[in-house]
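Q: Sequence in, structure out?
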Amino acid sequence: MITTGSTLTSDGYRFMGSIKGRILSIVIVAAIGFATYIALNFMQARHQASQLEKIQNQHFPIQVQLQQAVFALKQTHAYLEEAVFTAEQSSLDRAQSVATQFLSTLDAAGRIEPDAAASFQEMAVSFNSYYSNSVFLANKLIEGTDSGDDLAQLGKSNLAAFEHLVARLEKQLGNETLAFTQGIDSVSERARKNVTTGALTGLMTTLLIVLVAWFLLQRVVGRIEHMVTSLKNIAEQKSDLSTRIQGENGDEMSGLENGFNTGIDQS
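A: Exactly. Output:
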């Protein structure tokens, strides 16, 4: 087993020392460089795709839902105020329709971003309290059955609850907008870095391949030039019949050297 292993190792060294082996080395280095470049780009592309998917599936949809929620909340408040001033039941009906839409929007936002679902649920509870008090206030004003001071105090309290709810929603919307913007900026910045990294990787790989190829080709050309010079000297009778071509073993030129030297020995 040891002899076989040593033989295989020796054969491997001889092959890598041959002209074929040296040329193959250039191809191997080029393949490794190209594979490294592809692997690097693949990992970077996967990371970018993950970021874009998060932006598409979370940051953008939650922004839309929160914008709709803010609009529905303000519209509900406007219809409730209209009901107070006009004493029309139709305004309360419209307020109820928009209020249902508002709660549905909050529920959808919670499903899109589960981490904020508890916060959206708290907003829904606050809204239900505000809405119930507002409807009660509107009905009392329409009926004219309660004192003005009590209703004024309730109206002031309700307005504060509305403004607080709007502020919470707009703050959440601002946070989501910031996350969306940062996500886009991050993807853009990474794309720019990827271009730079790709260019540097390609440049370094090309430089490495050129250096390896230059070194190996110099060895090959040197072997050929040595053979040509030796044969030229013999042809010009600068050497006698005792001349032998001295060269390296293990490459294709060795066969020619051995053949020449054997022919001289037999002469």
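The helical segments are 2-17, 19-86, 89-112, 117-143, 148-235, 252-266.
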